[in-house]
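Quick one, tokens below:
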């Protein structure tokens, strides 16, 4: 098994908000980190054109990945229009075939935004479809189905406001600074929120939620996950095996 982890999320900054602390722990354990986003974040600006903000945000995402000595990939879908269709699934298969990860992280299947929910479904399918020779996607088939983990939804709740409880907590107390540093790379989003909230809401909200998850396992900061345990996916909890006492199961 190669020590390669891949986070595939909808938008630039999703990985940083939800799982970069855990990616940092994996990096320290000798893993190579890749972060992919379905879109370049083309709707995330009130002042730039789509092309301008896409270029800015891909650059920010690449800088954030670089802080983990990682690589950034963009699947070039469009914000708000992420679809569960053959073109999108093939793009996700291609990035998995290229990176060949043993662990994949993706969005929660229940979240505040449909982009996240459809990304979650696309990645679920792509993880096993990457090994299917007759897929239309390019690249060498990757037959090993990776361990698949879903991050918390934004604010830890579904669209009805009901809490979604993680079954796996990772203590990221020692990684909170790198999490803040990677999030701060997304300057275009940080400034936008600063203007609207008159405070550094971007970093503040991230830390508050990580502290909330931390409290649930009696530590300072944590990230929460659920593992995909459907048929054909790995059943062992590789995060627990790799990160030991940093991982608390509920
Ligand atoms: Zn997002």
């Amino acid at each position: 098994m190669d020590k390669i982890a891949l986070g595939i999320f909808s938008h630039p900054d999703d990985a940083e908000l939800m799982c970069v602390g855990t990616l940092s722990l994996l990096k320290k354990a000798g893993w190579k980190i890749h972060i992919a986003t379905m879109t370049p974040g083309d709707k995330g600006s009130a002042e730039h054109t789509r092309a301008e903000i896409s270029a800015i945000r891909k650059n920010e995402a690449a800088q954030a990945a670089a802080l983990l000595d990682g690589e950034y990939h963009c699947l070039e879908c469009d914000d708000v229009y992420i679809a569960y269709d053959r073109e999108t699934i093939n793009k996700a298969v291609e990035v998995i075939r290229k990176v060949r990860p043993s662990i994949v992280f993706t969005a929660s299947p229940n979240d505040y935004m449909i982009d996240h929910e459809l990304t979650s479904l696309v990645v679920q399918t792509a993880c096993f479809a990457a090994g299917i020779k007759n897929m239309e996607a390019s690249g060498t088939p990757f037959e090993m189905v990776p361990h698949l983990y879903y991050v918390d939804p934004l604010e830890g709740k579904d669209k009805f406001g009901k809490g979604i409880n993680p079954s796996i907590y990772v203590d990221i107390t020692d990684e909170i600074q790198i999490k803040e540093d990677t999030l701060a790379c997304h300057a275009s989003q940080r400034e936008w929120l600063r203007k609207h909230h008159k405070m550094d809401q971007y970093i503040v909200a991230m830390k508050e939620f990580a502290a909330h998850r931390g409290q649930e396992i009696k530590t300072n900061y944590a990230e929460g996950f659920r593992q995909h345990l459907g048929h054909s996916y790995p059943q062992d909890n590789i995060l627990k095996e790799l990160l030991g006492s940093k991982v608390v199961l509920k």
